[in-house]
Amino acid sequence: MSARPVAQWSTGPHHGVIWESGLALVSGDLPLTAANQLWARLADIDDLGEFVTALADVAGSGLLVLPDFAVAVIREHGDLHVAARGRLVVVADVPGEAVVVDGSPVETWTERQVAGAMSVSLQAPGASEDPTDLRLGASGVLPAGTLRTTLFVGPVTVPVGGAVPAFAARQHASPDTEAAPPSPGADHPLKAATLFPDDDIDPATPIVPPEVAAPATSSSPPSPPLSPPSMRGPMWGAPPPAPVPSPDGVLAVLCANGHANPPQRPRCRSCGGELDGPPRQVPRPSLGRLSTTSAGTIELTAPVVIGRAPRTERFQGPEMPRLLVLTEPHISATHLALRIDGWSVLAEDLGSTNGTYVRRHGQQPFRLVGQPHPLAPGDVIDLGHGVQLHFEELP
């Protein structure tokens, strides 16, 4: 049996909702009967898109008139998929910083993937976070102003004096599952990297995608990534089961011209038209284009494994990936993978010799280490020696 999250909460005018895969703070404008219905709907939900759909259903509203909310769907190893709408906010504590997700600047809501969080708080303006004001909650609907849970700490001990303890996550990493330490120099820009020849030649003969015309520059505004890599299963419990094939579809809102869009977008990513219908399950469209400096352009309709002699055996997932060959000698045989999950495109280095670096507008280049990383429109993956992968028209 999987363990449920245990939260600290302060009393307030909103609905604190705690279920097996996460916690949410929903505006008190939502009737209590609807909040109770939401909690019942969430019993089998471990996906942020499904949470939003359930909230829209019980509120009897469209996606643009949802009540304010802050939500954290908690996955393995402290990874979170969080979102906030209106005046409610999410604060995730990761080593060295506090990640704040505030939905007030946008019409719909703001989403973010957070990796390796130590704790997460859902807060309303003015709510108390004084430890002496916090109570304990395990599952259900609470009259709350703050919800907080702690991830990846040691065994819980009750301090002298009656202070409220922090709460340990229900899943502890074993020696076999702990994340590898970051590679030396992972935070340095690409220019500081030293490239070495790679001799892991693989005899496999992959398929090289045909060259097509380079894509036009996208004018679509960037939107936050939706779903992280599928690692669903009992929260803070045993490792998730092996993925099984499922229908190739996504939850989407259609414009008047029939273009599919992520549910949180106010306007169509293809034609700019308004989106005002209910979300529905549709076949997943292309999630953009990948253009390379040496191997042409491909549509992102399926996962991709990239390298000098890439092999599908290095990729784990429910879909068969395409193979993209880059012939430069410093590229590893199976260098990196592009995963597709929901509306997100994620890049993952597969233990390459010379590393994989992401260049994002306005930021220093950073190296991919460990978990898959969501990509944004305009991102460039730099593999060194002029080999670059350009991502355009991502959702």
What brief labels describe this structure?
Tumour Suppressor Smad4; single chain; 3 domains; mainly beta; 395 residues; FHA_dom; globular; SMAD_FHA_dom_sf; 24 strands
Describe the overall structure.
With 395 residues, this protein is mainly beta. It has 3 domains: 7-150, no CATH class; 183-240 and 286-395, Tumour Suppressor Smad4, CATH 2.60.200; 249-283, no CATH class. The chain has 2 helices and 24 strands. It has helices at 32-41, 48-59, and strands at 7-19, 22-26, 69-74, 80-85, 89-94, 97-102, 110-114, 119-123, 135-137, 140-150, 249-254, 260-261, 280-283, 289-292, 297-299, 304-307, 322-325, 336-341, 344-349, 357-359, 366-367, 373-374, 380-382, 388-392. The strands form 4 sheets. Strands 1, 2, 3, 4, 5, 6, 7, 8, 9 and 10 form a 10-stranded antiparallel beta sheet that branches. It has a 6-stranded antiparallel beta sheet with strand order 15-14-24-23-20-21, with no helix packed on it. The chain has a 5-stranded mixed beta sheet with strand order 17-16-18-19-22, with no helix packed on it. Strand 3 (69-74) and strand 4 form a beta hairpin. Helix 1 packs antiparallel against helix 2. The protein is globular, with a radius of gyration of 22 Å.
Give the overall form: globular
Query: In whole angstroms, how far apart are the ends?
Result: 37 Å
Helical content, roughly? under 10%
Number of beta-strand segments: 24
CA-based gyration radius: 22 Å
Low-confidence stretches: 153-247
Q: Structural class of the helix and strand makeup?
A: mainly beta
- Topology order in helix (H) and strand (E) letters: EEHHEEEEEEEEEEEEEEEEEEEEEE
Strand content: 25-35%
**CATH fold-level topology of the largest domain:** Tumour Suppressor Smad4
Mean pLDDT: 75
**Number of separate helices:** 2
- Please indicate the count of domains: 3
What CATH architecture of the largest domain do you see? Sandwich
The major pleated sheet works out as:
10 strands, antiparallel
Specify the CATH class of the largest domain: Mainly Beta
